[in-house]
Design goal:
By secondary structure, the protein is of the alpha+beta class. It contains 6 helices and 15 strands. A hairpin with a 6-residue loop joins β3 and β4. It binds 6-O-phosphono-alpha-D-fructofuranose.
């Protein structure tokens, strides 16, 4: 696993450079879920695939930016699904973005994830690694230094409500309104990585990207967005659900499948489960 973490650390240093100097224009291509790819997306993916190809323990990789699984080492132990630069369109407005990694064994599906990593490119570059616990590292003078463990409180006060609001189910809208009426603060940048990182570091709250009338299966991709953060939030003492069950119980059928998703402290997720159960 350390050889994978070292590759991710190296990628972060190279991607930081690309964010600061690279071309943020649109490419001619779309990814597997129909998003227009920025040249930055493709360039970050090239960096990561090149680094992962040198790691013998990696059997195969799945990238948001590539249609198919890429086989690397037939005797490798780990499978990695990653989003090279999530929220890349935010670079143009100088907001934080991130890379997300799910590390799996045997098969690409929720209950086979064994570790997750994400890197936040913001005012500072930070990396969060979830294995048995959740550890925060910060890039200082070219090296990632351990800063602290991350633990969620039972209840927080931040609310990050995603997706198209005029396509929300009535019970979802009522729940979000009730949460704000309880005094929660709105914290939503449109970047999953900084939005979820903030809730983790500020002790808790709720991030939601539900199924909607325009996207019944949600927007966020299971293997390289939803499951890595579900694993992180559970290891930090919180929960991650699709409104009815643990996200990590979902059986992936296609490598670019999406899922409605809720991540948060126990109090907030229990509130979601109650509302969704009443409206099942
Ligand atoms: P919306 C970025 O494109 C992304 O995939 C996530 O980082 C983010 O949480 C979500 O989409 C934002 O989507 O519909 O709120 O713009």
């Amino acid at each position: 696993m350390n050889d994978i973490l070292n590759a991710i650390k190296q990628s972060a240093i190279e991607i930081k450079e690309l964010i600061e100097t690279g071309d943020t224009g649109k490419s001619e291509n779309q990814n597997a879920t129909g998003d227009t790819q920025l040249k930055l997306d493709i360039a970050c993916d090239v960096i990561l695939e090149k680094l992962f190809a040198k790691v013998p323990s990696i059997k195969a990789i799945v990238s948001e930016e590539q249609e198919e699984i890429v086989e690397l080492n037939k005797d490798g132990k780990y499978l990695i699904a990653y989003d090279p630069l999530d929220g890349s369109s935010l670079v143009d407005v100088n907001l934080s973005v991130g890379s997300i990694f799910g590390i799996y064994e045997n098969d690409f599906t929720g209950n086979n994830i064994v570790a997750s990593v994400y890197v936040v490119f913001g005012p500072r570059v930070e990396m969060v690694v979830a294995q048995d616990d959740v550890k925060l590292y910060r890039l200082l003078k070219g090296k990632f230094e351990f800063i602290q463990n991350i633990v969620l409180k039972e209840k927080g006060n931040l609310n990050a409500p995603g997706s198209t609001q005029n396509c929300w189910a009535p019970h979802h809208k009522a729940m979000i309104d009730d949460i704000f009426n309880d005094g929660y603060r709105l914290r939503y940048s449109g970047g999953m990585v900084p939005d979820l990182h903030q809730i983790l570091l500020k002790g808790g709250g709720l991030f939601s990207y539900p199924g909607t009338s325009d996207k019944p299966k949600g927007k966020l991709r299971q293997l390289f967005e939803v499951f890595p953060f579900a694993y992180t939030y559970e290891k930090a003492g919180g929960q991650a659900s699709d409104g009815f069950k643990r996200l990590l119980e979902i059986k992936t059928s296609h490598i670019h499948d999406t899922s409605p998703c809720f991540f948060g402290s126990n109090s907030e997720i229990n509130r979601v489960l109650k509302v969704y159960k009443e409206h099942a």
